[in-house]
Amino acid sequence: MKYYLLALSWIIYCVLHSWLISTSVTDFLQQRLGGAYRFYRLFYNIFSIITLLPVIIYSQSIKQEPFFIWPEYLLPLKYALLLTGIFLFVAGARHYSLSQFSGWAQIKEKTSSKLINETGVLSSTGILGVVRHPFYAGIFPLIWANDLDITTLITNVILSIYVLVGTLLEERKLVAEFGDAYLEYSKTVSMLFPLQWIKKKLGFIPA
Fold this sequence. Notes:
Elements: H1 2-20, H2 23-33, H3 40-61, H4 75-93, H5 98-102, H6 104-109, H7 134-144, H8 150-178, H9 180-188, H10 195-202
Helix pairs in contact: 1-3, 1-8, 4-7, 7-8, 8-9
């Protein structure tokens, strides 16, 4: 029963989190709130953190002894995954504005911008020339490079599905925002796993 409750808690959190940032909700709120909409991003982030805390606390309360512990001979792989995840987040952060992401810039500048970069221009430089969604891509190695018990396994599976769905929803927003430019960009840069980049490095695709 406790694992069903855990799964339900994560699913409710993920669905609510995605719904609140969906285009239909944000467009509706922007029309209704007018200038006050500039506070929404900050509210959304605070609400996401507050509602995440009970899920994490419950998850920790039912953790058991892991059924999988990374063996010593696989530790290099574990650390490589962790470093890859950290690198993707750090490299991705260079292309986004922390103040925009947090919502502080919208309040300070009295703007209702939904963008989280500073320029609003589609970029394919740096890590964005390797994968289109470095933050989402970085989540996978970080959550799976851990020892596994039932609680962690359930959490990781749900979060992995959530990230995949979230990435696809984000793709729709970016196509609506940048149009053909984003469609062309997506033909040359992979979404999460850098397959196109690897092919270019190996000479299978002209650089």
